[in-house]
Specification:
Number of helices: 15
Bound molecules: nicotinamide-adenine-dinucleotide
CATH superfamily of the largest domain: Aldehyde Dehydrogenase, Chain A, domain 1
Radius of gyration: 23 Å
GO molecular function, one term: L-glutamate gamma-semialdehyde dehydrogenase activity
Structural class: alpha/beta
Number of domains: 2
Pfam families: Aldedh
Keywords: NAD, Oxidoreductase
Strand order of the largest sheet: 14-17-18-13-12-19-20
Catalytic activity: L-glutamate 5-semialdehyde + NAD(+) + H2O = L-glutamate + NADH + 2 H(+)
Family: Belongs to the aldehyde dehydrogenase family. RocA subfamily.
Distance between the termini: 34 Å
Helix content: 25-40%
Length: 515
């Protein structure tokens, strides 16, 4: 009997007992705050001279941990180990590989609040966002484990009376996992899990802002019984270690989640053939977004306003799926704008020590400066109706910011800001709204608030995004239920947490045997 897949429930922080458990998680994190983590290459702990320092973005002072920084020599060593380990790991039964993911998920579930508390400190997430990040990590591990069990025998193809045919999936080889800081746990763990459950070995290069949660994940995998050398932990500079590994002739695939700029760089470099390379590299890239919420005049306007606020300012807009454009049909434009401004003015911003704080800091100084630059551009391109101020004296805090009456071709309507900034744009009618929404090189998520059935069907067909939501905001996908990934410059059309994601990490082999 197939047991239906159930995703990990989110924690209800209005419940005092849950709050206490979370605070206990924070205390556990305190016990290892500031610890130093080595590289892990083939199970061996390697200390390097240089360190990456992970800082709490809410206070700029607290060192969450330091990690050894890999050089190209370390990356080379890890590559050799991963290549050698591939020969045994690819022959390890898929059931055993899946089992390691299930055991890892169980360990994380047991320590869920601790890991979420670590994300509060390392990434500056509010409690509910950190909880969702950890829950998604658990989901990815369990879902990909289950998917592997379904794929292990391949797919049935017809045999002929004289010939028996089989169609199976085999792993690719050594992969490079390059993950972002914003879903520091879920995406990093999901990308790694998909690659190794399918029989590949990997080098994991997490984002430099969030290396500690990745080091913790490696400890979980080891506790769950993952053999040495299957996942090698090599945090380092993108330009130095990243480029080196992308160019490496033994790299078989690169799984990347991050910005458009870095994604394109990886895609271009991976297309080059180097000396000693005997295959073409595969690139799985999940990149940025310029996500839009469209509201028509039949919509529930209060629901529309709440959806825009949650999608634009949840986790300070630092989601690839964050709403950064609100396109509103002209007869309800003023009404929706006013409601959004009212709700936004009630939002709390600060260090996320309590579950009631809605918005924490942005991740670091570079992000802070970039967002502030966009706010200055926005002041020229639109009418500032909320926020617009920032303060980095204690942590990297930016007020939720709204610009009204922005032209569809304005810079803040086209470029990914990745911060708490939303631009309002007026549309003449629904056709115009969809055309404005599609006026971007991205194509990740979008949402339509409407009670008009024809508009729903029209958007289903014409709104060109990988994840389209009706009558809700545009953030938040659920593993197994709402596979996630975008079109155009949002990536290579892959869908994380979907039924075909594992196939991207494998190659199909046809064998035909004369009878
Ligand atoms: N589509 C999705 O599912 C998805 C999910 C999360 C985040 N994102 C996107 O990620 C971005 C934010 O994340 P970020 O700031 O960590 O992105 P980023 O592109 O700056 O970094 C991502 C990773 O790439 C590494 N890197 C940097 N230069 C490199 C190079 N030359 N070679 C190899 N690796 C290199 C970084 O060290 C990091 O590990 C946003 O654009 C967001 O939209 C997309």
């Amino acid at each position: 009997m197939v047991v239906p897949y159930k995703h990990e429930p989110f924690t209800d922080f209005s419940n005092v007992k849950n709050q206490q458990q979370f605070l206990a998680g924070l205390q556990t994190v305190e016990s290892y705050i500031g610890k130093d983590y080595p590289l892990v290459i083939g199970g061996e702990r390697v200390q390097t001279k240089e360190r990456i320092v992970s800082i709490n973005p809410a206070n700029k002072e607290e060192v969450i941990g330091t990690v050894s920084k890999a050089s190209q020599e370390h990356a080379e060593k890890a590559m050799q180990v991963a290549e050698a380990t591939f020969e045994t790991w690819r022959k390890t039964k898929p059931e055993m590989r899946a089992d390691i993911l299930f055991r890892s998920a169980a360990i994380i579930r047991r320590r869920k609040h601790e890991f979420s508390a670590l994300l509060v400190k390392e990434v500056g997430k509010p409690w509910n966002e950190a909880d969702a990040d950890t829950a998604e990590a658990i989901d990815f591990l369990e879902y990909y484990g289950r998917q592997m069990l379904q794929l292990k025998d391949g797919v049935k193809v017809e045999s002929r009376p004289i010939e028996y045919n089989r169609y199976t999936y085999i792993p690719l080889g050594v992969g490079i996992i390059i993950s972002p800081w914003n879903f520091a746990f879920a995406i990093m763990a999901g990308m790694t899990a998909a690659a190794v459950v399918t029989g590949n070995t990997v080098l994991l290069k997490p984002a430099s802002a969030t290396p500690v949660i990745a080091a913790k994940f490696l400890e979980v995998l080891e506790e769950a019984g993952l053999p040495e050398g299957v996942v090698n932990y090599v945090p380092g500079s993108g330009a130095e270690v990243g480029d080196y590994l992308v160019d490496h002739p033994k790299t078989r695939f690169i799984s990347f989640t991050g910005s458009r700029e870095v994604g394109i760089r990886i895609y271009e470099r991976a297309a080059k053939v180097h000396d000693g390379q005997i295959w073409l590299k595969r690139v799985i890239a999940e990149m940025g977004g310029k996500d839009t919420i469209v509201v028509d005049s039949t919509a529930d306007l209060e629901l529309a306003a709440k959806s825009i606020v949650a999608s634009a300012f949840g986790f300070s807009g630092q989601k690839c799926s964050a709403c950064s454009r609100a396109v509103i049909i002209e007869d309800v434009y003023d009404d929706v704008l006013e409601r959004v401004v009212d709700i936004t003015k009630q939002l709390t911003v600060g260090e996320t020590k309590q579950p009631t704080v809605f918005m924490g800091p942005v991740i670091d100084e570079a992000a802070f400066e970039k967002i502030c630059e966009y706010i200055e551009i926005g002041k020229k391109e639109g009418r500032l109706v909320a926020g617009g101020t920032s303060d980095k004296s204690k942590g990297f805090f930016i007020e939720p910011t709204i610009f009204a009456d922005v032209d569809k071709n304005a810079q803040i309507m086209k470029e990914e800001i990745f911060g708490p900034v939303v631009a309002f744009c007026k549309a003449k009618d629904f056709d115009d709204a969809i055309s404005i929404a599609n006026n971007t090189e991205y194509g990740l998520t979008g949402a339509v608030l409407t009670n008009n059935r024809e508009h729903i069907e029209q958007a289903r067909e014409d709104f060109h995004v990988g994840n389209l939501y009706f009558n809700r905001g545009c953030t938040g996908a659920i593993v197994g239920y709402q596979p996630f990934g975008g079109f155009n410059m949002s990536g290579t059309d892959s869908k994380a947490g979907g039924p075909d994601y594992l196939l991207l990490h494998m190659q199909a082999k046809t064998t035909s045997e004369m009878l």
